[in-house]
Predict the structure.
Amino acid sequence: MKRARLSECGCCGSPDQTFIYNVRHRGVYRRLCTACVLKNHPGSFCPICFEVYENPPPPPERAICLNCPSISHLSCVVRTTSKLPPRYQCPPCSNPNFSFFDISKKIQGVNSELTVIEGKGAIDGDTAKQLVAAAQIAVGSMNKAVELSRVEAEKKVREAVTARKKAKEALERLANLSSKEKIEPKLLVSTTQSSLEKRGQNEVFRVQNNGESVKSGGEKEMNVPPSVTRQ
């Protein structure tokens, strides 16, 4: 990421250098402003009191927005509307002009409930809750990302160990095959040489027998063909 964009929201492009969070959203690491963190995690908090859920409230205690996944406390809805509408819509969906973390308020006089940010506006009770909610969501998101990274790393380590074991076994099989290929030609050459030597000895013996006759007294006499007369 370029340094020039580190202080910008990766969703709306807001150049808010004061509150930018690192968030893992839908498998992608992004840098989001407070408003975009809340906007992109509608089911993670109550849009009225801005309490971040560890677990969503049970059905009898919640009101689900008709237009988005936002989940509100039923008690918060009843407190603000006196009763639950038959077709409930959360504040962002019911009000087209709604905006999360709107601190562009005109500061009139001194108000102890406002925290002034020079050049930006003021933070009141509601925007402070939104700021805390966005921070909690961002921290939870990154904690989950760390856990997923740990699980993925352990998986890759197991795969690497298995691959190394298979590679070692393959090398051992290759070494065994190579040693067998070296031994078998030696045995073949040795057997062939022995066979040739034996055949050569038999051939010499046969020639000698054809050229000589052995007398009973042990004397040798040359065989003379019948067609040759003695001189």
Notes: Strands lie at 20-25, 28-33, 62-64, 71-73, 115-117, 121-123, 212-214, 220-222. The two ends are 119 Å apart (CA to CA). Confidence is low (pLDDT under 50) at residues 106-110, 213-224, 227-231. Residues 125-211 form the longest helix (87 residues).
